[in-house]
Design a protein that fits this description.
By secondary structure, this protein is mainly α. It is built from two helices and no strands. The longest helix is centred in the middle third of the chain and has 139 residues.
Length: 190
C-alpha cells in the first residue's frame, strides 16, 4: 500500500510539472533579449529599479528627513532661546523694579531719618532756648534782687545818715538851747 501511495504521488507530481511546462510553452515565454518593436506604437517609459538609484533616493530621503529634523531642532532651539531671552528680560525688569523700590524705600527712610534728626535738633534747640531763658530769668531775678538789696542798703544808709544828722542837729540844738539857758540863767543870776 505504501508503494502505491508513493507511485501515486510521483505520477501526480509528474503530471503537475508537465502541465506547468506545457502552459509555459503554450504562452510562449521568450527568454531572449527584448527587441524593439518594429511598428510605431506608443512607447511606455518605464524606470528600472536600480539598487544604486534606490540607495541614492534613500540617502536623499534620509538627508531630507535629517534637514527637517535639524530645522525642527533649530526652530525649537530658537523658540527656547526666545523664551529664555523673554524670561531673562522679565527677570531683569523685575530686578530693576525691585532695585527701584529698594532705592525709593531707602530714600523714604533717609528722608524720614532726616525729618527725625531735624525734629530732634529743633527739640534740642527749644530745650536750649528754654534753658537759656530760665538762666536769663534767674540772672534777671538775681540782678533785681541784688539791685533791690543795694537800694534797700542805700536807703537804710541814707536813713541812718539822716537820723545821725537829725540827732546831731538835735544835739547841737539841745546844746545851743542849754547854752542859751545857761546864759539866760547866768544873766538872770547876775
Amino acid at each position: 500500500m505504501k508503494q502505491q501511495d508513493g507511485i501515486k504521488k510521483s505520477v501526480i507530481s509528474s503530471l503537475v510539472w508537465h502541465l506547468l511546462l506545457g502552459i509555459l510553452l503554450l504562452v510562449g515565454i521568450d527568454f531572449s533579449a527584448p527587441k524593439r518593436p518594429s511598428q510605431s506604437v506608443s512607447i511606455i517609459e518605464a524606470t528600472m529599479i536600480d539598487d544604486g538609484m534606490v540607495a541614492e533616493q534613500a540617502k536623499q530621503l534620509a538627508k531630507r528627513q535629517a534637514e527637517q529634523e535639524a530645522a525642527k531642532q533649530e526652530a525649537a532651539a530658537e523658540a527656547q532661546a526666545e523664551q529664555a531671552k523673554k524670561e531673562q528680560q522679565q527677570n531683569a525688569a523685575e530686578q530693576q523694579a525691585k532695585a527701584e523700590e529698594a532705592k525709593r524705600e531707602a530714600e523714604r527712610k533717609q528722608a524720614l531719618q532726616a525729618e527725625k534728626n531735624k525734629a530732634e535738633q529743633e527739640r534740642e534747640q527749644v530745650i536750649e532756648q528754654q534753658r537759656k531763658a530760665a538762666e536769663a530769668k534767674k540772672a534777671a531775678e538775681a540782678k533785681a534782687a541784688a539791685e533791690a538789696k543795694a537800694l534797700a542798703a542805700k536807703q537804710k544808709a541814707e536813713a541812718e545818715a539822716k537820723a545821725a544828722e537829725a540827732k546831731k542837729q538835735a544835739e547841737a540844738k539841745a546844746a545851743a538851747d542849754a547854752k542859751k539857758k545857761a546864759e539866760a540863767k547866768a544873766a538872770a543870776d547876775a
